[in-house]
Amino acid sequence: MAAIEVILGARGDPDLYVKIHAYRSLNVEAAERRWAELLRDVDMPPECLVDILHFTVAAMRGFALHTAPASNAHFYRRQLDLLRDFLVGTLKPYTKSIQQ
User: Fold this and answer.
1) This prediction's pTM
2) Which of these, 41, 53, 55, 73, has the minimum number of CB atoms within 10 Å of its CB?
3) 24-31 long-range contacts, CB within 8 A, separation 24+
4) 38 CB neighbour count, 10 Å cutoff
5) What is the C-alpha separation between 28 and 69, in angstroms, rounded?
6) Max Cα-Cα span within the chain
């Protein structure tokens, strides 16, 4: 959350925004490379894998923000199970190595 606040706050300073955006881009590229390596056995177009990465990160970020004030372990478990089921269901048809 803090990183997003820094990015949003830097929008008022064009020079700072360019620097922060460049740094963020390097981090995103590194995450995409690691994700591609992790899912190297998935026979899916690279852009689809990147989309799944960004969707997963957005879901996890939303999950963390939405559930942070709550303390219901069963709710957390159901949410994580939904995300796992989405990932497995999306990737499984494209790989032989995903097991349930």
Assistant:
1) 0.74
2) 73
3) 31/57
4) 11
5) 28
6) 49
